[in-house]
């Protein structure tokens, strides 16, 4: 940048003509670009929320993100930006969590606060025939599905409600089953009331990665559809009456994938909808309003 000054000659400087222009080059300082920036959302998380850890780095290689001593998956957002999605659940302890982000020679050490949250208690009585302890086949298939962490992000924007009915049981409820408290259990999803045969919709774009039927041994989950949305995010739909998709199908947000039923460990027709991040059940409500990039 060049600044212009007009020199007015004094009596002792008559050798310089009036109005002569002197140019003085000025060098503008350039602020250094931060080599590693980390942003955690939401600002005030509580148990059940999904934490989004976004990293901006000058490195081309992915950063390493460690939360509470555990390395978590990192996926690209473009332009040297990366993100990790970290689940929290009602069974975890509220309070501080360590966050360490490493990129090249740079390291950021931070603390993340996750607030407490109160969850209600419910008593459920399952009639004979609905109180099965499940089958190994059922649990193996569901565990395999929950472990999926595929690299491609398939969803776009906020998730959709999978059913139009009212919520009968929210996420996180603790339960007594037939008088016995389920110590390590919490309600891993949202229950929607609905008439048998009413449509169940895919909450977001994804690939059908699980189809299980009561007749095959899904005695707790009932007729089930699981959708892989990529990058460790999956949704599951339980107790269906019938199923209208097959494993491997690509589905779009709002597509009918089945209908409400009363199969498996269910006390009446309803849809149980669960959302998992890196194998842990999180509250789906924030995903209905938050369109993670």
How would you characterize this protein structure?
The protein starts with a strand and ends with a helix. With 293 residues, the protein is mainly beta. The strands form 5 sheets. Strands 13, 16, 17, 18, 19, 20, 21, 22, 23 and 24 form a 10-stranded antiparallel β-sheet that branches. It is built from 2 helices and 24 strands. Residues 1-33 have low confidence and may be disordered. 5% of the residues lie in helices and 43% in strands.
Give the helices and strands, then pairings.
Elements lengths: L1 E5 L14 E5 L10 E6 L3 E2 L3 E8 L6 E4 L2 E3 L2 E4 L2 E7 L7 E9 L2 E10 L5 E4 L11 H11 L20 E3 L4 E4 L2 E2 L8 E4 L5 E3 L4 E7 L10 E8 L2 E11 L6 E2 L4 E5 L9 E8 L2 E3 L2 H5 L4
Parallel strand pairs: 4-11, 12-14
Antiparallel strand pairs: 1-2, 3-5, 5-9, 6-7, 6-10, 8-9, 10-11, 13-16, 14-15, 16-23, 17-22, 18-19, 18-21, 19-20, 20-22, 20-23, 23-24
């Amino acid at each position: 940048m060049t600044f212009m000054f007009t020199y007015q000659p004094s009596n002792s400087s008559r050798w310089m003509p009036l109005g002569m222009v002197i140019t003085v080059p000025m060098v503008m300082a350039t602020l250094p670009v931060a080599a590693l920036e980390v942003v955690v959302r939401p600002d005030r998380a509580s148990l059940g929320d999904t934490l989004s850890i976004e990293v901006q780095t000058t490195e081309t290689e992915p950063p390493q993100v460690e939360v509470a001593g555990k390395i978590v998956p990192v996926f690209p957002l473009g332009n040297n930006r990366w993100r990790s999605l970290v689940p929290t659940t009602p069974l975890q302890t509220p309070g501080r969590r360590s966050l360490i982000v490493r990129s090249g020679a740079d390291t950021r050490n931070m603390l993340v606060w996750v607030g407490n949250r109160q969850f209600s208690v419910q008593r459920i009585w399952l009639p004979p025939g609905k109180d099965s302890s499940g089958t190994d086949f059922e649990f193996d298939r569901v565990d395999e599905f929950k472990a999926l962490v595929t690299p491609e992000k398939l969803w776009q924007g906020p998730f959709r409600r999978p059913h139009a009915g009212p919520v009968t049981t929210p996420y996180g409820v603790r339960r007594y089953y037939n008088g016995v408290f389920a110590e390590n259990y919490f309600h891993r999803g949202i229950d929607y009331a609905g008439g048998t045969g009413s449509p169940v919709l895919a909450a977001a774009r994804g690939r059908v990665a699980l189809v299980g039927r009561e007749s095959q041994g899904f005695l707790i989950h009932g007729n089930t559809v699981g959708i892989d949305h990529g990058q460790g995010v999956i949704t599951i739909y339980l107790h269906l009456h019938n199923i209208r998709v097959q494993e491997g199908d690509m589905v779009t947000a709002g597509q009918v994938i089945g209908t409400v039923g009363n199969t498996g460990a269910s006390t009446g027709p309803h849809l149980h909808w669960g959302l998992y991040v890196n194998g842990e059940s999180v509250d789906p409500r924030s995903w209905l309003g938050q369109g993670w990039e």
